[in-house]
Amino acid sequence: MINNNKVTALGPRAWWVMSITFEPDLWWDAVSQTLKFYAHFDGRRIHCAVSRPALEHYVKSSGMTSPELERIFREHRDDIELRASKKIRTGRFESAGKIFVKAADLK
After folding, report:
1. pLDDT values of the chain reduced to their tens digit, one per residue, 107 residues
2. Which residues on neighbouring strands pair with residue 38, listed in sequence order?
3. How many angstroms from the chain centroid is the CA of residue 104?
4. How far apart are CA 102 and CA 79, in angstroms?
């Protein structure tokens, strides 16, 4: 909203219409057992990750290899990014400002 030619707030609706974009690259982190990717929102680059259990639960499988997990992520990327977007918009960040998509998020 503009007040005396100064921007005082975006207003409650502006937060929801601001675009969230995702970088196309992703990578498997064997130590944390997560697929990692980045989102951009409100001028910030946000580190996102989805866990192995979340991906396996999503497709009702287990013991998948990292290439299989990457394939599952790519096949369901729109839905996973939607879940990450909802967490970003509602401020559900983990430590260090990261977004972590868990099995409970992919129901």
Report:
1. 333 333 334 445 454 557 899 999 999 999 999 999 999 998 999 999 999 999 999 999 999 999 999 999 999 999 999 999 999 999 999 988 999 999 999 87
2. 47
3. 14
4. 13
Exposed, middle or buried by CB within 10 Å (0-12, 13-18, 19+), for 50? Answer: buried
Question: Token pair of 67, please?
Answer: 């290439």
CATH-assigned architecture of domain 20-106? 2-Layer Sandwich (3.30)
Q: Per-domain residue ranges for the chain?
A: 20-106
* pTM to 2 decimal places: 0.81
The Cα 13–Cα 21 span in angstroms is 18
